[in-house]
Design brief:
By secondary structure, the chain is mostly beta strands. It contains no helices and 8 strands.
Amino acid sequence: MKIGTAATIPFSSGSTKGTVSLAVTSIDKGDPADLTPLKLGDKAAGMVPYYVNFKVTNTGGTDLSFASLTQVKGLLPDGSEASEVMLIGTFDKCPHPSFPKGFTNGQSITSCVLALAPQATKVTGAEYWGEPYTLGKGVNWK
């Protein structure tokens, strides 16, 4: 799919199941200095951060309050996975909130995942690999 195009997908988080519309809205290159507060050490050496921004809209009849959609990965030009950084707590450059209370049909939220790419390449796509999909066989945006 093209970046900006929404896909309607089944969604599950624990015992909560519903339907959402998911669109990767942009992939933005950051500055390696952005990673300093994360204290990644050697994992960040020679890497450039990319912010994979996406919008989730509840399109089903289930209240998805407090769930979160985290199964989005950055992809390199050859289709392989970019390095992932699991964000815990807040990181202003890449907000990744849980769905708010009252996340019912028609409600939307924007979120972000952090991907790292070696300086010689870049993150050019993204994949949603949550259930019922699997990594490498999910919904892709480029």
